[in-house]
């Protein structure tokens, strides 16, 4: 998405910055790890393909992406500087938010409302959250949880603009598009990620699929998303290239 191209999210536990071309070499190095490929259901790419992928993610209307970095120092009160505050040695992983039509809409061809509280003909979306902390020595330190909390706080603050960008890209009426829930697809044997999302309020839906993934879901509630950033000292700072 383009909405976050000049915005970074600074908290006491993590810094999120837009995924830009100067991150690609480090990201490509991470993705050579077969364990990460399996955990993220990714195929290995050439470096050229990785650069193309980065550009695609930057301009996609249905995917919001940040690079996860070490938090700024408490004394840092100015803008975030690219290639300095997010230098390779400060990068820890990435976090993504994908928008899809909600499964209920696939079965609702006549467009009628599903519940009395929903507007007739509403286009219901579900957002998938996907977080990856690349190196084993950086896992278990709270980066993943803080990244999820931070991006959900950002989405709550900018939801109308995010939905507007999605609707424009899909050629939909932006007045009818609404976010109704969240999901995360996690390998069944990834106990750490399952525990992380469970702690945040996600519940497993059904059994593992053919690919060995479980789906964890939660409803989109404004109050819950507000609580996500409590204690994180959340700030949005301009990202300067």
Automatic annotation (TrEMBL):
Keywords: Acyltransferase, Transferase. Residues 67-221 form the N-acetyltransferase domain. The keyword Transferase applies. One of its GO terms (molecular function) is N-acetyltransferase activity. It comes from the Eukaryota. InterPro entries: Acyl_CoA_acyltransferase (IPR016181), GNAT_dom (IPR000182), NAT9-like (IPR039135). Coiled coil: none annotated. PROSITE patterns: GNAT. PANTHER family: ALPHA_BETA-TUBULIN-N-ACETYLTRANSFERASE 9 (PTHR13256:SF16), N-ACETYLTRANSFERASE 9 (PTHR13256). Belongs to the acetyltransferase family. GNAT subfamily. This is N-acetyltransferase domain-containing protein.
């Amino acid at each position: 998405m383009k909405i976050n191209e000049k915005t970074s999210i600074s908290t006491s536990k993590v810094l999120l910055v837009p995924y830009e071309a100067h991150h690609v070499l480090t990201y490509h190095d991470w993705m050579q790890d077969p364990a990460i490929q399996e955990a993220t259901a990714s195929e290995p790419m050439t470096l050229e393909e990785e650069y193309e992928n980065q550009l695609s993610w930057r301009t996609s209307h249905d995917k919001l992406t940040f690079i996860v970095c070490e938090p700024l120092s408490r004394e840092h009160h100015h803008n975030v500087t690219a290639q300095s505050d997010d230098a390779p040695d400060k990068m820890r992983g990435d976090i993504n938010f994908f928008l899809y039509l909600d499964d209920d809409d696939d079965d609702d061809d006549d467009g009628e409302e599903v519940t009395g509280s929903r507007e007739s003909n509403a286009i219901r979306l579900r957002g998938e959250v996907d977080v990856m902390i690349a190196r084993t020595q950086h896992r278990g330190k709270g980066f993943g949880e803080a990244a999820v909390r931070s991006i959900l706080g950002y989405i709550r603050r900018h939801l109308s603009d995010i939905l507007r960008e999605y609707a424009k890209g899909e050629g939909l009426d932006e007045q009818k598009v609404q976010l109704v829930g969240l999901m995360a697809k996690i390998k069944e044997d990834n106990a750490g990620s399952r525990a992380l999302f469970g702690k945040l309020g996600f519940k497993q839906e059904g059994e593992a699929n053919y690919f060995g993934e479980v789906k964890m879901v939660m409803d989109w509630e404004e109050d819950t998303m507000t609580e996500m950033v409590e204690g994180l000292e959340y700030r949005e700072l301009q990202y300067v290239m």
